[in-house]
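Order emerges. One example.
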Amino acid sequence: MKSFLTRPKRKLSPEPKPVTDDDEPTEVKLVLLSSVHPEVDQETLLDFLLAHDGSVSQASQALKSNKYQQGARKSGIIGHQQSLRQYTMGDSTSPTKKKPKSKKGSTLHLYDPEDVAEHTPCTIIHNFLPPEDANSLLKELLKEADSFEKITFKLFDNVVSSPHTSGFFVESYEEMMAQRSEYYYNGSQLTDVRRITPELTKVKPIVQAAVNQEIQHRIKTRYPDGKKLKHQSPNPWIPNSAFVNCYNGAQQSVGWHSDQLTYLGPRAVIGSISLGVAREFRVRRVLPKDGDTKSTDESDAGGQISIHLPHNSLLVMHAEMQEEWKHSVTPALSIDPHPIAGNKRINITYRDYRQRMHPKYTPRCVCKVPCVLRVVQKKKENFGKYFWMCHAGNVPGKEGCSFFQWAEFDDDGNPVVSGNAVKYSER
């Protein structure tokens, strides 16, 4: 008894140390968070960590706050996830709120429309069409897709074909003939140009209204001083053509690229509907280099952002997209079959072919074909400048020339020749 009474008192367990923001790998940060919040699953911990730019202490504080509800869980199905904004602290309107950003070598996955608008040059509208209209359009285009073909072109002296099939649709027979005889893509003319289908015609005014509304909203809320970008057209966006792509299975894809501006003009806007299987649409910002930079390719220096496109969604690629970003549809490890489309995804990209960008106004080189309009993306000194160059070399079996010419446009994106805007008849 005496020994029990005189035994030294056992030291109390030390207070748990607060989690810190050490420059540790993500795995270590997750262990730190898990030690303080053992009741929270790893997936949710990672979401909080991403939402607070990797700050362990801020993620921990957010988990302790009443903003977090243990019952909320992320679905494993593409296209359904709570917004990253739910994991941040404080008033949602606070300008000092932390925002998740993509980082070198990583991919930030976005599902919520407000997150997409905040971090990418796009906006997305889920459940865009009435369900019966979306299904009718999907069924119609699945039949059309049975006869789609892969586009063949030359890349670095090798003949390659696109890893998916596609078809091109215009509104009238006259436009079909014009596309086959006057317009050039990848240095050659299209042979498969189709008349717009009844369901595409039905949906077009709905897309037009939605895209124009999103354009104006973005100008007011995202662009400097609430004004359109330089070279962006002030006119309403009027879709008059559509490329329809079919991705059959998880492995069909399209690599990193910017869409051609030859007939769309500078600061083009594209409205894209996704139907059928949900897929990832990835974007990454173009980071130009100094002229004397000799480093290896750092195309992923700014990281990637993945936008998940479920069935019946409209993605608007805004005026800064083609000049300052690149996009792709990456191969998927697996996909969830769609009840109508099976393993197929149908993608409709509505485009506004501007009259002022008609091939009759396009420079031609000695190869006698219209040149392609491109924009400088690699070098800082000329970043964002437009130029015309020969495109005949993209045709298998043909060689192009070295034609190059800087392209000039006024503030509204109209081509300028010898100081005067190109004359044309109003549409």
Remarks:
- The mean pLDDT is 81.
- The chain has three domains: 24-60, 122-289+300-356, 360-406.
- The chain has nine helices and 19 strands.
